[in-house]
Structures are given as structure tokens and as C-alpha cells.
């Protein structure tokens, strides 16, 4: 080891030693400055590298997105994906390089500066101090008077001790200097060598990576040359095609014949004609909207955007006629008239109008040729162009809000305190569970998701009458008996007001998500429960007609008279005849004349002077009556079949079966218990015509039962084996309130059962004027909203008022809607 400062010179404390010390101290000070600067520059380099990596990652992400967008071009997608992967590897290598720089330069040199240089400075302070003390001792010894022996002895002792201390500290200081000078070389070289090796590894990895990528890049380079040639060829072809089309358009402009440019014919895809037409809306303003029309599969349809599902204007062209319209202000108009409505359209020119009229006429003729004699047997059907009602915001209920809803719900025993923590005066509720909650528990319920709990304010939100009635028929007491049945048995503590949120949340999740405290019944208990519910349903159904048997046949259309239907509707409806005339005239302008001319033949006088309806129009269930007389005991046979189904499916625990029979028995607590046991709300009874709990709730006749199932996710359009959904069954049984509810919850009016009957056709044949009115008003409202576009009004005010009235009446005064009796299957 090379000695920077000589040890013997330090004992002499010569000027040479002092000069060496000053030189070393200056060198160390400059070294510290340079090292601090290098560390700061390293930190700046690392930060800039991290920013570079971040920007590079974003760039690579952009390449990946471009590759995903180019999925139709396999070459571009695969190449960009490979490039992105390679660049991502380089980013990873950069990250490793910067990490190594941080360890080798920043951390290692910072340690050297903070530890070794700090020890040097501390040694320097001690050396300077003892040097001053030595100089003071020498001066005092020199100044001691000859005649004062005690002062001479004292100065001599101090000088001797000071010199001894000086030699000791000076030797340590020189040792620290020499060690520092040696260590600075190793530390600096070691850190820089480690950093350079990190660079060597980085570039070596990059070289290997791109060496593997080079064959692909070479291949793409050769393909790129061919792509440039192909692109130039395609450009020439497109320019030639452009010139040809331009010349063709110029010739048509010269001849004033642009008909062929305005529509297309695609015979291979069954499109007889398609193109743009203006369509007059059916709203009060009679606005005109430009839509893309097409004639395909014997139907006239239109759509606003290509991705939209086509809206059917005429379901079967054989049932319509087409004619010119010269009695309106607009030019080039024509009208397609179907049995239920008419559609006014406008072409852009006279030639286009003639082309469209001819296309419709040809399609009518073609349809008749294809079907032959079957055309005479077709029933007149309503258009299926409307969708379902949206219960989210388009239908504003006459609802209860504020203190009224709060008072009604809190009046239920147990509801005056939070269901989960017991805090008094709750102001929130879970509508699918039927419980009241404090604001903190309501927030936790919201975090569970709407498939577990749907939270609504008792004071701020509006409450539909059927939903308010649902809340009043359940309550905290009923639900806690189900969801906390085993809480005390398991020793679980129920939260109290003021407990930490984490504890309350853990309890609520265990209660409703994990269902830890629900008591699962034994198979014997489940069997007894289901049998009891089925017997309860049997007693309830003894006074009403069961659901139509799947073996029943479809009535011939000739057995029903549309005129008698309108007359019966006028006699039985909530609306006066003038109101029904104005409503029905929207769909059939000849309904008034038909009803007036046909009424005497369809309505007879009984012996007691009252008016009676012939058997074919006596009830709304007539469409399900067999053509021959049903055997005696049909009701008994149906119930027996259901009872047998109860026993055959009780081999194992089945919560769905409990939900099934509880829905028909109108037992909300048993329904809530079945859901807590894990029942599927859309469970299908395979041995009972594939009916669902919602269909059985329709059979039970309870509006609140249907609302409970819908709030818990029941499918409002799920059909049975006969193709009949809940809306079909509610229409057949004449449950007007349920029909109103299902329409609000999105039930499809266009669904057909296996007899090809829609709910509207069933209601018309049964002469149920209230249900016919609801279905037709819903269809009219849908057409108005569709014609007005996405930014139009949410519906007609008359329609909204009528639905509000029906909802209010169905919940608060259902007897006013139950004027019809289901069809008597024993009637001759």
C-alpha cells in the first residue's frame, strides 16, 4: 500500500508534514464535491430513464392498440404484436440497467461519502483541536519563569501530556488519511466497473433480441415491396372504377333518371328492394323522419342505423295494400295500409315512388304465389314493430314520496329500526329484500351489488304503489327470522349503532352474501313445507280457473267476432264508449262501424232482462278452450298432476320447488326463505309444463308476488312449454294489474305462443277492453317514441296518465279491475 503521509514525519510535526496534511485535506474536500455531483447526476439520469421507460411503455401500448384495431389484416396484427413484445423486452432491459446504476453509482458512492468521508472529517476536527492544545502548551512552557519552580513543573507536565496525546491522535489521523486514499480508488473503480458491466449486459441482451427478430424484419421488408406494388395496382383499379361510376352518374343526370341510384335489389339475400324514404310519425305533430326501408321475407321493415334491429312496419305483405296519396301537401307520397294501421311514406321523386309501389305490389303477388291456399287461412295479426316499455324513467308513476312512504313502511313491526344494526328511525330501504336500513348500512348494501340488494331512499325517491305494498308485506322481522335464524346458535354478535364500519360490513356480507346464519331445512322439513304450500295453492285455486292445459286446442278464428269484441269491451271497460272509439280508431278506423253493425248478433238478452254474451265471447279464456267439450273433472285432473309433480321432485332438497309453490300460494315469507336457501328465481318446473315461479305468481293472482320476483331478477319474458310468458298468462286470466306491471317491466308484446298468438290477439279475442287498451296504448307509445327519435319526448301524456291510474288501482283497489271471470272449461 502506498503511504500518502509518512508516519515518522507526523511525529516530528515538520513543515513537510503540515504541507502534506493541507494537500490531503484539500484533495478530500474536492473529492467530496465531485462525488456529490456525480451522485446527483446519476439520480437525474435514473429519473430521466424512468420517464423514458414510462413514455416508451405508452408508445408500446399504442402499438398494441393499433394491432388490435387491425385484426382483419393478419400480417399487420402479427407483425405489430411481435414488435410490441420486442420493444417491451427492451423496456425491461432498460429498467434493469437503471436499477443497476442506482445500486452501483448512487447507493455505493453515497455510502462512501456519508461513512468514510464523515470519519475523515471527524478525525480532522480532533487533529486540529489537539494541534491547538499542543501549541498552547508549548507557549505556556516557554513562558514559565525560572524562579517559579512549581509553574515550570506544571507547564512541563502539561506539555508532556499534550505531546503524548498529539502523537496518538496524529498517528490515527494519518492512518485514516492513508486508508481513505486507498479505499477511494477501490470504491470508485468498483462502482463504475459494475455500471459498465450493466451496460455490457444491456447491449448484449438487446443484440440477442434483435438478432432473433431480424429474420422477421427481413421477411417483412420483402413483403413490403410487394405490398407497395399491390397498393399501386389497387389505386389504379379504384380510379378506373371511380371514373366509370362517375360517367354512369353523368349519363343518368343527363337523362334525369336517378332511380337506380336511390335503391338496391339483392335477390340473393331475399331483399326485393331497399333505400331511403321519409316516414310520417304517428304522433300528434306528424313529423317526417328519413329511414332506410327494405322489403324482405314478405315484410316491410326500416331501421335508423345499420346496427339497429329492423322495425317491422308490415309483418305480412299479403295482408296489406299500397296506394298513392295525393291529398296531402307533400309530393311523391304513398301509403301502405295493413289491417291494424297505415304507414305514410314519401319518396324523393315520382319515378322512385312508382318503383316502390311496384315493388310492394310484386312482393304481395309473390307471397300469394308462394303460399297458395294457405293465404286464405291466415289470421289478421297486429304489427309486431313495437318493443317493450321501459320502467326506468319513461313511465312516471303516480307514486308516493317523502313522509307518506316513510310512515307506511315504518309502521310495519320491526321496521322502526335498522334491520342490521338496530339504529332507530331508518331512512333507507332494500326493495328486493323488503327491509329498512340506516344510512351507513345502506351504503354497505350498495357495495354488495344490485344482485344482492337494491337500495332506495324512503324520503327522497318516488315509490310505485306496488313496490310500497311489497315493503309493507315483508319487513325486518320476517327477513331477520330467515337470515338470522342461526346467529345465536353460532354465537355471532349483531352490530350495534356506532360500531366500526368494518365490523358492520363483515356482518352484512356474512348475512346476505355468504348466508352464514340461514338455517337450511332437512329434506323432510322441505317436503312438508312444499306439500303445505301446494295444498294452500290448491285451496286458493279452487275458486279460480287453473292455467290452461297444454293439451287444449286453438280456437278457430271464425268462432270469435271482432265486432262483438269491441262491443263487449265497451260494456266492460273502465273507459266510456267515446274514449274507446278514439283509442281504437288509432288502430282500426273501421272498428266503430263494425261494432255498430255487429252488436245485435253478438249480444243477446237473457230471460231476466240482463244482457248476456254468447259462449264464444263469455270470457277471456275462450281462446284456450278445446273445440270439443272438455271431460268432466278437468280441474281435478290438472291439480292431481301438479300434486304428483310435488312428490316426484322431492327426492332431494330443492329450494326452487318451494319458491315455485310459494309464488302461487302468495306467501312472500316462504318465497324470501326459498331465495335465502339458494333458489333460482327463474327455476323451471320441468314436469309442470316448464313453468316458472313468475308464471305461478300470475296464477296466484297477487300483484305483490310478481313485483317481489321481478325485483329479485325474474325474467319477465321466460316462456313455458306452450311458449307463453307471464304476459300471456296474465292476459289469459284477465289480471289487468299484472299486465300493467309486466308492460312496465319490459315484457315483450311480440312474443307468440305455439299457437302463434300474441297477448294482444288473446285480449282482443277475449274482449277484455282494459287489457286491449293497455297493450295498444303501450304499442302506440312505443311507436311515438320511436318516431320522435332518441331526443324526443318520453311518451304521450294520456298514455302515462292511464298507466298511472291502472297501477294505482291494481295496488289499492284491485276489485275494480277484476270484473271478468276466467273462461269456464266445463261450460257447454
Automatic annotation (TrEMBL):
GO CC field: endosome membrane; plasma membrane
PH domain location: 270-365
Alphabetic keyword roster: ANK repeat, Cell membrane, Coiled coil, Endosome, GTPase activation, Membrane, Metal-binding, Repeat, Zinc, Zinc-finger
Compositionally biased spans, kind Low complexity: 383-392, 541-552
Entry keyword annotation includes Repeat: yes
SMART domains on file: ANK, ArfGap, PH
Region of interest called Disordered, as start-end residue ranges on this chain: 375-396, 519-563, 591-631, 809-828
Recorded topology in the membrane: Peripheral membrane protein
Regulation: GAP activity stimulated by phosphatidylinositol 4,5-bisphosphate (PIP2) and phosphatidic acid.
Cellular localisation: Cell membrane; Endosome membrane
GO molecular-function term, one example from the UniProt record: GTPase activator activity
Cited function: GTPase-activating protein for the ADP ribosylation factor family.
SUPFAM superfamilies: Ankyrin repeat, ArfGap/RecO-like zinc finger, BAR/IMD domain-like, PH domain-like
Residues annotated as domain Arf-GAP: 403-529
Protein known as: Arf-GAP with coiled-coil, ANK repeat and PH domain-containing protein
